[in-house]
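Need a sequence for this fold. Nothing fancy.
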């Protein structure tokens, strides 16, 4: 978790933009409730403070990007060169072109 601040597990946003939804995703909200509408000019109390389709799409995409950035929490050892052997390799010139991911 990026921040250790208290955060509700459910967020119900009433602002007419998606930034608060993204911010609470950063601090670990499990559910984000956001009203959406096809047109803010429709009559009714919720349309003015609701997201339109493009804004909802942008909010969801931004949250998905945050989830990817945090990863799945599983750390695995790398398969690179052991730090104990760096001095043997650093500064050396390859004798041939190596393929991507080819062990050297």
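Here you go.
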């Amino acid at each position: 978790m990026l921040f250790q601040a208290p955060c509700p597990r459910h967020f119900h946003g009433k602002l007419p933009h998606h930034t608060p939804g993204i911010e609470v995703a950063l601090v670990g909200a499990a559910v984000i409730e956001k009203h959406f509408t096809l047109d803010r000019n429709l009559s009714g109390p919720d349309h003015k403070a609701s997201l339109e389709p493009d804004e909802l799409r942008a909010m969801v995409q931004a949250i998905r990007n945050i989830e990817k950035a945090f990863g799945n929490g599983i750390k695995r050892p790398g398969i690179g060169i052991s730090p104990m052997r760096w001095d043997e390799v650093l500064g050396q010139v390859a004798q041939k072109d190596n393929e991507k991911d080819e062990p050297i």
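For context: Residues 10-70 form one domain.
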